[in-house]
Amino acid sequence: MTFADSKQRFSNRVADYVRYRPRYPEAVLDFLRSECSLRPEHAIADIGSGTGFLSELFLKNGNRVFGVEPNEGMRQAGEDLLARYPNFVSVNGSAEATTLAAASVDFITAGQAFHWFEPATARREFQRILRPPGWIAILWYHRPLNKSSFTDTFEDLLIRFGTDYEKVRDAYPKSKDIASFLGNKTFSTREFPSTQEFGREGLTGLVKSTSYVPDQNHANYAPMMVELEKLFRENEKDGLVRLENTTTVYCGRLDGNGTNL
To answer: Homologous superfamily of 14-144+171-195+245-252 in CATH?
Structure first.
């Protein structure tokens, strides 16, 4: 499933994205060290790097990171966040056309971005820029269902009022999608649970940071905010609510024989 507006969906949501989206756990690095022999000298192409959250994880590890981002607002936010890291290179490009040199990177990463790619074209581009043996790491955080009543009710609210939340959620990568993209079933995966706490303003900001929530001119916006306020009041403790998150990491190598995507 692809989205025609994928490269512009976050243009008016950058500030909320930076303030309220969760960061990636440092345990991801330990996993990639053990499974993919990640080392500080490896060059990383972080595709769909956005505001720079995943890029920063690798920069702290000592890696040189090429943050490839097609959306101007998101790319600028990433440049601002990562300005203090000399090993960061901001690139105006996309998964399908990174502009990077052939065989120039050791790892390709995608954090919260894989479902926006055009798979067949992106796969060919990844094969071009990876130098052997070359690894791909795809990361995704989501809210697991049936973990807390608040998280489940929050999900229901997004379904009721979101513009295309179920379509986006259904496009989140699953094991079969990773196997198809890599061209083989030999890859590793690990899950890292976490929680976020939000006050009223933070919860509203988190909602507004997502691409599937209506903007202020949409008929669903006002009733959604009313329901969100009610949900917060009914669940807050000491002015805070807790949302459950799980970060899933897939890592593997591309099979040179291609894929049916």
So the answer is: Vaccinia Virus protein VP39 (3.40.50.150)
